[in-house]
Write a structure and sequence with these properties.
Helix content: 25-40%
Order of helices and strands: EHHEEHEHEEEEEEEHHHH
Distance between the termini: 19 Å
Largest sheet: 9 strands, mixed
CATH superfamily of one domain: Class I glutamine amidotransferase (GATase) domain
Number of strands: 11
Strand order of the largest sheet: 2-1-3-4-11-10-9-6-7
Radius of gyration: 17 Å
CATH topology of one domain: Rossmann fold
Strand content: 15-25%
Structural class: alpha/beta
CATH class of one domain: Alpha Beta
Number of helices: 8
């Protein structure tokens, strides 16, 4: 299994020192649940892509501080490439920004969440007990950090997780696409750091509640195992 990770941000300060990159976080996450894969990271903001996606079995899009609908040249180029990958039926995973960008390329509306930032540990209703490692599951709690979200399920997609705050929190498209808004790759320390940076924006009440939520942990490892099984399943037929 060979995974292409399109890293859509450049970490700075404490996060860069502690974690290097979002791409590195995903490598650590997958290795932590036993994925014996070859994984390569390409930074899209720097215009870096593989010479060919054909050598990869799947492509993962990380999060980003940017908007999926940004007019920045690098974001427009990423959307062009993702649209082509979708048309080629390449297996894909999108997380946060990646989730939004794939949905946008599929024609779904994406924009600023009217209720503001989603931060901290958030709990979602789980709608797909048929997915791997999901038997009997009705909810899942994960770490979120986003001010944009997908407003409607893309055409042909099946809803995986939702909440009142984030109605399209995760979706799949057959055996080809798995997208999720919260961050299974995050540690609670990353969430705490990001909330500290945005404390003034969040306001004291939301900051305090979200900070307190981190003590309850999260179920990112569950999503990691699910994604591993999803990607290792037979490729979709053309």
């Amino acid at each position: 299994m060979k995974l292409c990770i399109l890293d859509n941000d450049i970490l700075d300060g404490h996060l860069a020192e502690a974690y290097s990159s979002f791409g590195a976080l995903f490598i650590r996450m997958f290795e932590g649940v036993g994925a014996d894969w070859t994984m390569e990271v390409f930074n899209t903001q720097l215009g870096r892509y593989p010479a060919s996606f054909d050598e990869f079995d799947a492509v993962l899009l990380t999060g980003s501080r940017a908007d999926a609908f940004s007019d920045a040249p690098w974001a427009a180029e990423l959307r062009r490439r993702v649209t082509a990958l979708l048309e080629a039926r390449k297996k894909m995973v999108g997380v946060c920004f990646g989730h939004q960008l794939i949905a946008l390329c599929m024609g779904a509306p994406v924009g600023r969440a009217p209720q503001g930032w989603g931060v901290g540990r958030m709990t979602y209703d789980w709608h797909r007990p048929d997915l791997p490692h999901s038997a009997g599951r009705t909810q899942i709690s994960l770490l979120a950090s986003h001010q944009d979200q997908v407003f409607e399920l893309p055409k042909g997609a099946a809803l995986v997780a939702s909440s009142a705050f984030c109605p399209v929190a995760a979706f799949t498209v057959g055996q080809q696409v798995f997208c999720i808004q919260p961050h299974p790759e995050f540690e609670t320390a990353i969430s705490a750091h990001l909330m500290d940076k945005r404390r003034g924006i969040l306001g004291e009440e939301r900051y305090a509640a979200a900070s307190a939520s981190l003590q309850h942990g999260h179920e990112g490892e569950h999503i990691a195992r699910m994604v591993v099984t999803f990607l290792e399943a037979p490729a979709p037929t053309h």
